[in-house]
Description:
Blueprint: H1 2-32, H2 37-102, H3 109-143
Helix pairs in contact: 1-2, 2-3
Amino acid sequence: xxxxxxxxxxxxxxxxxxxxxxxxxxxxxxxxxxxxxxxxxxxxxxxxxxxxxxxxxxxxxxxxxxxxxxxxxxxxxxxxxxxxxxxxxxxxxxxxxxxxxxxxxxxxxxxxxxxxxxxxxxxxxxxxxxxxxxxxxxxxxxxx
Length: 144
């Protein structure tokens, strides 16, 4: 965000410098009699109107990009948190399954169900991870 602010300030500085140079050049032309005072004022007014509308367009574009980046980062963080939660849940289930399978008891239907649940959870994590990667890749292309 600091980079964006610095770019905006640089643009404002450039616009100010340019406006000053245009005024100076028009004033010189008026003094030399190459254009009338009225024409000089019209030129300056026209330039400032164009500059103002361009500035407004640039500000709107920067705001849109900033909003997209912010919302995407929030979305990515939320997905990453969900993926981490799923990974932790898988670890818990694997630990429980390992504890049950290492005991001398026979494998029960519960152990089989737990294995299937772990397999399903792993697939879900894989899908969520792939989805997150796609979202991040899309965001990078959108931001560029």
